[in-house]
Amino acid sequence: MPKILVVEDDADLAEMMSSWFGNERYTVEVALDGAYARDLLKASAYDVIVLDWDLPGCSGIDVLQEFRAGGGHSPVIMLTGKSEIADKEAGLGLGADDYLTKPFAIRELGARVQALLRRPPLVNSAVLQVGKVELDIGKHRVLVGGEEVHLLPRDFALLEFFLRHKDQVFSGEALIERVWSSDSDATPEGLRTAIKRIRKKIDGGAEETRSMIETIPRVGYRLRLPR
Predict the structure, then answer these.
(1) Is the pTM of this model over 0.85?
(2) Alpha carbon distance 111, 127 (integer Å)
């Protein structure tokens, strides 16, 4: 299931894109400003980024430049009201892969996203590893002690977040907001159930108190570093 980040400060347009891609069976996360988009890009990997040029505070071009400078390889479609060739050249020259002028038809955006998804993945896809757990973002694969285990898409996203933020404590509310922000069905009980499923996969039957994902009473959760 492809994972898309939509960065758009027009809340109605962002909701329309999120709903459309969700109906097309994409996993969608939404940022309404550049600062939040930068946080999401540091926390997770995306198959495609739909990025508005004109954002409050931190512009889309700023987000794009920082993302590319930090080694981000995901394809980026810029959305903007600018129609001059020079503006398009500027966006493409700074690392955008495609450019769509507003207003646009949502089906055209969908077709462009599909075209980018058909590109072969980069060989040097990111691999996150803590102890015996290895998560390959590009191949969407998790290995535990060299053996592959299978996770649900939302569990994969949660484990990826923990691996990116090892030894940091997050409340349940923060995890739902930062990992499942586009999932209207996300609940505290759903989070607890997901963590139980992940523990079962990565801990080899160990007791909860010895799990890699540690529960901090009345605070939240943390992926503990191996001793």
Answers:
(1) no
(2) 29
Number of folded domains that form the chain: 2
Instruction: Determine the Cα–Cα distance for residues 198 and 195; give it in Å rounded to an integer.
Output: 5
Q: Which of 109, 61, 65, 68 is nearest to 87 (CA)?
A: 61
pLDDT number for residue 181: 66
Write out the H or E segment, with its range, that includes residue 156.
helix 153-164
DSSP 78: E
Q: Which domain holds residue 206?
A: 127-223
- Is residue 57 within a helix (H) or strand (E), and if so which, with residue range? none
What contacts 105, CB < 8 A, 6 or more positions away?
A: none
pLDDT tens track for 159-210: 988 988 888 899 999 898 888 866 666 889 999 999 999 999 998 766 766 8
Residues 135 and 51 in one domain: no
User: CA 95 to CA 29: how far, in whole Å?
Assistant: 21
